[in-house]
Amino acid sequence: EDCQYEDWSAWTACEPFCNGTQTRDRKILAKALHGGAPCTDTVESQSCGHECSDCKWTSWSSWTPCSQSCDGGAQTRARSEASPARGAGAHCTGQKNETQNCNTQDCPSDCELSDW
Q1: How confident is the model at residue 94 (pLDDT cuts 50, 70, 90)?
Q2: pLDDT score for 42
Q3: I need a labelling partner for 91 at 20 to 30 A (CA). Which of 6, 52, 58, 62 fits?
Q4: 69 Cβ contact list (under 8 Å, min separation 6)
Q5: What pairs with residue 60 in β-bridges?
């Protein structure tokens, strides 16, 4: 008589969530008798994994031209999400836009003459 088993249990949760492993088991009800098929593994495992990837930014764009030629202007640059977070992956952090000061030197002023 062959080894007798209970049905397999349900698969466990995937641990860790990304690229993990899950297992299930079964109990032996009766061992093999009189040359029957022996009992084999009572635990199975399999890879599981939710596709997980971290968010990735694109490279920063070039800085825009300065808004002023002197007395202080501003210029900006931007980036966007090249690929969003998937599954339990990390979300993008940081800003999509950056601004910096530029051309902060004083503008030249016209020469003024005083009366004699």
Answers
A1: very high
A2: 95
A3: 62
A4: 103, 107
A5: none
With cut-offs at 50, 70 and 90, classify the pLDDT of residue 43.
very high
Q: How far is CA 80 from CA 57, 94, 114, in A?
A: 6, 11, 56
Q: Residue 12 contacts by C-beta under 8 Å, 6 or more apart in sequence?
A: 22, 23, 24
Q: How many residues belong to the chain? A: 116
With beta carbons less than 8 A apart as the criterion, state whether 33 and 70 touch. Answer: no
Q: Which residue bears the tokens 């007798």?
A: 4
* pTM across the whole model: 0.52
- Give the model's pLDDT for residue 37: 94
Please give the Cα distance from 76 to 97 (Å, whole number). Answer: 7
DSSP the chain: ---EEPPPPPPPPPBSSBSEEEEEE--EEE---TTPPPP--SEEEEEE-B--B--EEPPPPPPPPPS-SSS-EEEEEE--EEE--BTTPPPP-S-SEEEEEE--SPPP----PPP-
Residue 46 has pLDDT above 90, yes or no: yes
